[in-house]
Amino acid sequence: MDALQIDQENLEGLSEEYRQAVMAYHRNLDQRAAARSDDPQMPRLAMPKEGMGAASALTQYQTLIEPNLAATLGPRYWGFITGGSTPAAMLADGIVGSIDQNPSTPADSITSSVEQQVIEWLREFFNLPAAFEGVLTTGATASNLLGLICGRQFAGEQQGLDIAKAGMQGANIEVFSATAHASSVKCLGMAGLGQEYTKIATLPDREAIDLLALEQALANSQAKGKIVIANCGTVTTNDFDDLSAVADLCERHHAWLHVDAAFGLFARCLPDKAHLAKDIERADSITSDGHKWLNVPYDCGLFFSRHIDKLETSLSVAAPYLAVESSSPTFMNRGIENSRRFRALPIWFTLTAYGTEGHKNIVANNCLRAQQLANWIEQSSTYELLSPCQLNTVLFRRQSSTRHTALDLQNIDNKKHLKAINETGEVFLTPGVWQGKYGFRAAISNWKTTKDDVLRVIALLEKLSND
After folding, report:
1. Fewer CB within 10 A of the end CB, N or C, for the chain?
2. Helix-strand-coil percent breakdown of the chain, rounded to 5?
3. Model pTM greater than 0.90?
């Protein structure tokens, strides 16, 4: 009997061994370094010719890989906007891998109907009108690509072209944005629109778009098709474009409005933050992320559009083996991949387990914790806040010991200081540059983060402040 057959016969016992390995990671999460700053590398192993079996593979994992993982599920992993995965979502993701469903078409199971329900629940959670339909993607990058594909199709139709069918030849499309996220720039290249978009000026001391500059650019454009990428929560300062005014301009100039709201869309669920994302429902398409503030495991992106027909026109393919009749959407016609992971299940589990109120509480608590840190920084004689804390991200740096130190020397000092902070393993922060000043980004989106975690980081910052 070979290793595969043996493992199948011993699946129940192996499952317990694997479960214990996962729980060991969770039990030791608070002692694990928030992130590995020493760039750990795998040894170059020869590919096994004869399999060693699942138990031996697990031992190898525990020896070579597990000790070098980041504590991304931990409460002080603040470098990226990474949710910590709620217990229900985490367990559901294990089910997803175990049942191995492929919700490409509604031909053979309930999975497409589950995804449709999840889209409807999220639409309600974000207070979006029924006109918005959507799909679950691999993340904000894929969702931004879908938005640009829709916008490209719309812009083509403005000049009598079906770009999905005939390609970009003859198309005249211009894209406008003030602070496009790197993923949007990447997607502009993938969509054939070109990464050299028309960059619009921002408001003074802001990352938000200057509306007068946008109006002038749209009015002066000779393009027959126009796409505007707006921001609902920028990556560096958490800034928000005035979506009401941007939507007015897009309507006036017949431009497609795509809003990158990878985490900013969640502002809609809090009464005191909802104004930041006001009128996002006037967008043509919206990007968001589940593996950020919804706290479901990687990978899970969200995409919504009021014009889902543009997406299905661009992505549908005909093949006899794919033809089905169902009241549920064929989600492969709304996304990049034909074969898809059952991403809806962890969302269904976490919303069922904790409800909208539970998830609103996660968002509200993270905003409070970010403000707690920002308030301390504002009172600090050693650190300075580089931008007001609007949501869940805090951008700050260590002040120079002398006022007359050149900016480049201050930046070098802060790069060293960030390295020292991350090397402690207590917290993981990433760089953020604002108005030429090198700083640190603390992005808080984990459901586990508490007031005590922030106090623990404050104590660390105080300890390192004079080093």
Report:
1. N
2. 45, 15, 40
3. yes
